[in-house]
User: Fold these one by one.
Assistant:
Number 1:
Amino acid sequence: METNGTAGMEATRRRTQPSTNGKTSEQSEEPAQWGRAWEVDWFSLISVIGLLCFAPFIVFYFVMACDQYQCSISQPLFELLRGETSLLSIWARTASFTWSAAKIYAIWVAFQAFLYMCVPDITHKFIPGYVGGVQDGALTPAGLVNKYQINGLQCWLITHALWYANANFFHWFSPTIIFDNWIPLMWCANILGYAVATFAFIKAYLFPTNSEDCKFTGNLFYDYMMGIEFNPRIGEWFDFKLFFNGRPGIVAWTLINLSYMAKQQELYGHVTNSMILVNVLQAIYVLDFFWNEAWYLKTIDICHDHFGWYLGWGDCVWLPYLYTLQGLYLVYHPVQLSDAHALAVLLFGLVGYYIFRSTNHQKDLFRRTEGSCSIWGRKPTFIECLYRSADGVIHRSKLMTSGFWGVARHLNYTGDLMGSLAYCAACGFGHMLPYFYIVYMTILLVHRCVRDEHRCSSKYGKDWKRYTDAVPYRLIPGVF
């Protein structure tokens, strides 16, 4: 895949034929063009409209099912079919928007924006191995390299230190404040998500940050959802994509779980081992994200996705509300696992994390050293290929075929899916709701595989075929 070893930072105007040993020979074939497709087919358009219509309803349905039906996702449907309830009665029982929730949410977003913009990173100066501060992003389709202020780990540490201090010393607010205002906060998150997506859409027409990195398909639905601007910014440093991808949603993820834990303690007088497992496993994922935030600049979200409703609303609403369903479920169903079950879930999640992190580490090491490194005790093999950015400059890139990347083209996704399944399995097997996450992640990552490989095929042309011949499997060796 293109993101597994894109080490080619050298631009050249020569046309060359790459080979599997990293050497090149002259050729006359034009390298493939990099970037998102300009035209929208009917299937993509129908999918976009479907997501715009149904994604907000899906979030509402799952949250409502927990609030009104003890997390049963089938009971509301059966009651509607039997005429025992109505959509109006369900809506009437749903908590509405409140100004107190709006104040909480506004303070939260403003505080995260303050930490992002006004508190430069210092943690990289005293935490060994952490990469923070000002970092270069990946090359954009227009041939630009943006700079980013990487301070996500610092923001997470400050936020959680204040949460701990409040819970144990200051008592400014209850640790259950998030759970207690969960549905009113959902309306606030929706308002922000739609506002940000709409602003980015209008901004792309009136005052884009870089017009050369804008892509107009001519279809308003598709452009609104998938985005027009590649890296919309306000000023020099406020990058919409980095801020909303990492903050406020992912910083909030662990706080939401802590609020669920506090609520479980308040309701039942104890915290179950399943709740602890969910908190620990998901906290590992969140901390990994912020520890590797500089690496994240080279992933598909930053390197390929434009900023629209898909990222804006998704990061504000979909991520914090559906990625935390396991903890929400455990508030209503305090599952206490057997020691063997808990240990098996923990080990499975940790093995998944090891595969996820090790695979990405190999990619990052290969990219940083441009292949001059050791992978599993050997010098890595790779396929060198070419692509052309929108400015007409031809670039070299290396696609690694060693280590985990020689086993499957997306083995990092396999590890991610193992971790996702562990979150769900921590909730036992009493309800379907906690398992929505693994179903969703499977659809998301398989689709991302296809989407990423379509881009890579367009970007690298025949060189991509050579790579897929060398690494034939996508996710599961010998199966898929």
Number 2:
Amino acid sequence: MSSTGDKNRTSEVNVGEHFDVEVPDTAHQISSDSWFQVAFVLTTGINNAYVLGYSGTVMVPLGWVGGVVGLVLATAISLYANALVAKLHEFGGKRHIRYRDLAGFIYGRKAYCLTWGLQYVNLFMINCGFIILAGSALKAVYVLFRDDHAMKLPHFIAIAGLVCAVFAIGVPHLSALGMWLVVSTILSLIFIIVAIVLAFKDGVKTHSRDYEIQGSPLSKLFTITAAAANLTFVFNTGMLPEIQATVRQPVEKNMMKALYFQFTIGVLPMLAVTFIGYWAYGSSTSTYLLNSVTGPLWVKALANISAFLQSVICLHIFASPTYEYMDTKFGVTGSTLAVKNLTFRIMARGGYLAVSTLLSALLPFLGDFMSFTGAVSTIPLTFILANHMYYKAKNNKLNPMQKLWHWLNVVFFSLMAVAAAIAALRLISVDSKNFHVFADL
């Protein structure tokens, strides 16, 4: 594989007796980043503004026992699943820099296309979620100082989309984030520390809390199912091969270092804010923790502005596979500041984010749709496909118990995906009756 400046060449990869898959080279940089920089990319993917919602969306439906046990298990299972994919990065003697390339190499053309479709729908919905999060954080700042309601959530979503587009145009590829990852870490620490401190102060003042899981037995069944499925989304990007493509040799060893960092030190801030937020407010915890905390206006404003800016950076990470496809497809080469390349990024990335922003403003309760998308794409990509790919690739080296283990994982997560999809469809049905398009939530 080549790095920046290569043309959109293709190479044929034989994946079996009947399939040849054309795999394009990339217009973006590969093999240029240290394991530590990749670790920060992964950690940024965990400690984004979504963490401000886990107290309400994970802990409230599951309670203390289910939430704590679920998060600990999800950490271990996610590390295991990501390690399986990481160990296949150079399977067959070549480097697979995209998830679809790896699936195509192992299964063939149909799997290549299916994986591509699932991954890009998943990443598109995640990016819409970041735009909604960024818009919600901006609105939270606005209502701290104004109560006229002249500006509504769709207005702030539009502003967030514009800022995301400007950032996407200025940062050409994932490796170019560089110091922005440090900025992202600082921003994450600001809103996480503010949320922890203010929630802790509120918790100390409150002497009684209700931790009971709310709702009827049927309602509890659906909300617990949805929350259990959400545990699988907390730690996973759905684009591990694309991130691993940026790491230097030795690829597998360096990626495992990055994953160990992500799932040890990297998860601590997320777990801290999740548990303290739930401890402080119990079952009344908001799905956006900064709406529950009390404290100085300027501190809450600082936290919300940090959440807004960090969401812009984090969106760029999850949008990078889409940008890479467009840049490679249309042969973007040469200086990133060349007029031709700038114009292309304005048109291509600006258009992509304009569509994302419009959908986000149109359906700001997109979280329900994201849960459904996650059920039919994130779980299959991260857990079902990872286990089956490893089983198929290493079949001759696995003993019967190891083969059984991978099949049990495939069956279990397939059942979870079906259950999560049903729960998400129910939530969509309920919320579509309560909200309208361009709603001011």
Number 3:
Amino acid sequence: MDRTEADRRHYSQPEEMKDKDSRDTKSSGSDRVTLKKEIGLLSACAIIIGNIIGSGIFISPKGVLEHAGSVGLSLIVWVLGGGICALGSMCYAELGVTIPKSGGDYSYVTEIFGGLVGFLLLWSAVLIMYPTTLAVIALTFSNYVLQPAFQNCLPPYIATRLLSTICILFLTWVNCSSVRWATRIQDVFTVGKLLALGLIIVVGLVQICRGYYDALVPSVAFQFSQEPSVGQIALAFLQASFAFSGWNFLNYVTEEVVEPRKNLPRAIYISIPLVTLVYTLTNIAYFSSMTPEELLASNAVAVTFGEKLLGMFSWVMPISVALSTFGGINGYLFTSSRLCFSGAREGHLPYLLAMIHLRNCTPIPALLVCCFATIVILCIGETHNLINYVSFINYLSYGVTIAALLYLRWKKPNLMRPIKVNLLIPISYMVFWAVLLGFSLYSEPVVCGLGMVIMLTGVPVYFLGVQWKKKPKWVYRLVERVTYVGQKVCFVVFPQEDPSETECLTASKADD
């Protein structure tokens, strides 16, 4: 399944596409059928902030406080959690400008460690990680939207699934129609998220100015409800890390970023400190109006905060959370579809997923696969059990990617790196990652073991689908027919590659 130019020509195209292709060869380079660079610095920051700020900051404070055991230590965990994400994001900035390809972790690991390791990351992400995360965020969205209509009970099961499905379908349509529309939605809803959190912060600061800060006094803040242990602190970091997840998502769309060598690191350096500051101030605001016991008893911290302080305007909080999750769904769809696109381009997924719309230049087949997988997970119902496995796989992929950076430094020391971080940064991240993952394995061996099993099921799929070159002819005929029909239905073709984006990488391979 490793594609060559001959493989591409093997698939026939509809006549109207052939006519279009002949016209494209006469047109200028700006008219090429390829992913368009429409993500500027503002949209790049919006993608990072919009993917990080989802439902986590409205849910995770309870878990962080529960495992940290005190208000003071929980605030330290939030600050250090942002610091750890900053270390990881700096490593990803180096990888993103050294290997300027969309696909994030998968593309870097495939380039450095080879096809099998990259495929296992791709397999677990496409099969479980992103569809499950999308389903959970969509359900959070529908629950908060429906909450005002069902104040005294939980919203009906069918209603939440139906609204979640409608939301996924609508945003899939938007992403299929235009990259510009998708990024504009991301920009608007990211601003909305920051305004919602800004409201919480301002109300909390007003409370502090009025003298309501008993829980924040050091002598009270460090009163532990339980004896602190390394294992519990590690679990507190794991809860905070869930709220920070998404910091690496801009690397999934590198090829659509305007001047990625400048804007990719700039967006990372702006977004991560901003999110860390907002998260820390939001938690301080929570503790200005709620006792630790009240926060631990709440299943929706922001809603409880609104009910206590906003009175008749308390409805603002569930709507704000709903809007926040809506933007999160859009961001996850946008980036996860590019992962499918990158995997198909490398020959690890069906080639149809590597094609883009002839006019809109959007990866419609990849978007439809992400949409369909998410709806299937929604129908299964037990999404919250799956999210535990997702967290383990997610952090495993982070560690493997940073290890790939260290390996590339050793293997190709002379490779051109527009950004080269201090070696202590990836080493520090790997130490933290190893400790966190080790205590996760010790605390939840069954969950982590099943996460590994899910990932390893990709090994036979890789050898049968990718490595096995001499498949029966009927298999190739079937794939060709499905690809042709998919092209007709979605009106898609292979994108024309821009050699300037990967010329440095190609040159380094030639030197080796």
